[in-house]
Design goal:
alpha/beta, Dihydrodipicolinate Reductase, domain 2, 15% strand, globular, disordered N terminus
């Protein structure tokens, strides 16, 4: 339980009402016209969430699997049934190609919930089309794509939110932990331990027959060409999270799947979420899939999935004056003997946000991209931690990383893994 003092310290800013003015283009009673690119399991969850908001109108959906596309249309129509019956609703448009969706007249913004390898190109083209963007984490399949997104969004001036919702939600635990660390509860942080799964692996799945209604070539997109397998792209409408996330052609393994969340919180707490570590030290044992170390310029060490004793957590911060273990259902503080914790009269506080989607919508309404709690630069840096870890596990040698130039020092083998050449048809 949080003490009253702690609760007030961590929620005062978040609970404060936001007084926003809409940009000149929108009338006070207008709605944001929203399109969805990818309506699989995660996309359907987002669709349901946005359909319940009165300031949003879902006008278009897109997917490469016909069954999912049809299901999404039915979901929207069921929600807007009364307007459909009255004849006052224009209906939701369905597209197999996201580029057609981006051409839809009147579209204001998009939600992108595709596999990781299909984030960069839709983000870039949406930015160039002047659409605001909410994109799932991890932001990219490789480091260079993340920088590409950051540059294009900045150039376009659109509002961008990365789906790192632990910054806004989950009972205020992560926000509280970050504020405790910022305000010196455990002294100087020396070590951070992150409990997430294994690095990415090569894809060796057998080829299966492509199901009717599935555009397998489009699903592959910029990734290397290979045969269809339902583990990558399940048939029809399904309720599980597909395992494309385990394979390096499409994602960053389980290290990146939840790592994009937990490494994000760690970098936030360390005030390094617009930078990164300077050294990557993987275990030399080729069979070991934990224990990789990230070393920051100030000497702080972050360790992937390696804990001492029985203390495990999504994020475990070890400082000179105690420890903080935090997760989606956990917040445990242990202080050194004689140490006292509390907030000063003017504590260091995180940005106001208790609803990740609403934070994005408020930034759009105000015309202020800087109001987003997880803009593309931060999303890119969090994803980069995952990519750096995967590169380290793949090469099994210590690496020097420059977070300013986003290059490795004196290691061309590692630098080649910073980017990936897309298939010829998807060179943008």
């Amino acid at each position: 339980m949080l003490s009253r003092r702690l609760f007030l310290g961590t929620t005062a800013v978040a609970a404060a009402p936001l007084v926003l003015s809409r940009p000149a283009r929108a009338a006070e009673n207008s709605k944001l016209n929203l399109g969805f690119i990818g309506v699989g399991t995660m996309g359907r969850g987002h669709l349901g969430g946005f359909l319940n908001r009165k300031d949003v109108e879902v006008v278009a959906v897109c997917d490469v699997v016909r069954d999912r596309l049809d299901s999404a249309v039915k979901t929207v129509e069921a929600k807007y049934a009364d307007r459909k019956k009255s004849g006052t609703w224009a209906g939701v448009k369905a597209y197999p190609d996201f580029r057609e969706l981006l051409d839809l007249k009147g579209l204001d913004a998009v939600v992108i919930a595709t596999p990781d390898h299909w984030h960069a190109i839709p983000c870039v083209l949406a930015a160039r089309a002047g659409k605001h963007i909410y994109c799932e984490k991890p932001l990219t399949q490789n480091i260079a794509d993340g920088r590409w997104i950051v540059n294009e969004v900045k150039k376009a001036g659109v509002v961008f939110q990365t789906g790192s919702q632990q910054r806004s939600e989950f009972g205020n635990r992560f926000r509280a932990a970050v504020e405790m660390i910022w305000n010196g509860w455990i002294g100087n942080v020396k070590t951070v331990r992150i409990g997430v799964g294994s690095p990415a692996k090569a894809c060796d799945l057998p080829t299966q027959e492509v199901p009717p209604g599935t555009d397998w070539d489009f699903w592959q997109g910029p990734a290397p060409e290979r045969g269809y397998n339902e583990i990558l792209c399940p048939k029809g409408v399904h309720s599980h999270f597909p395992n494309w996330r385990s394979y390096r052609d499409y994602a960053g393994g389980l290290l990146a799947d939840m790592g994009a969340h937990h490494f994000d919180i760690a970098q936030w707490a360390l005030k390094m979420d617009r930078s990164g570590p300077v050294e990557i030290v993987p275990p030399t044992d080729p069979k070991k899939e934990s224990g990789l170390k990230y070393i920051y310029a100030n000497g702080t060490v972050m360790i992937h999935n390696e804990f001492e004793g029985n203390t495990r957590a999504d994020c475990l911060f070890e400082g000179t004056e105690g420890t903080i273990a935090v997760g989606r259902g956990q917040l445990d503080v242990k202080l050194a003997n004689g140490s006292k914790a509390g907030f000063p009269d003017k504590p260091k506080q995180v940005m106001a946000s208790v609803d990740h989607k609403q934070n994005w919508l408020a930034a759009i309404a105000a015309g202020k991209p800087e109001m987003c709690i997880c803009p593309p630069e931060i999303g890119h840096r969090s994803a980069s931690i995952c990519h750096l870890g995967n590169i380290g596990y793949r090469l099994r040698k210590p690496l020097k990383w420059n977070p300013e130039t986003e290059t490795f020092a004196d290691n061309e083998e590692a630098n080649k893994l910073v980017s990936r050449e897309p298939r010829a048809k998807w060179k943008i």
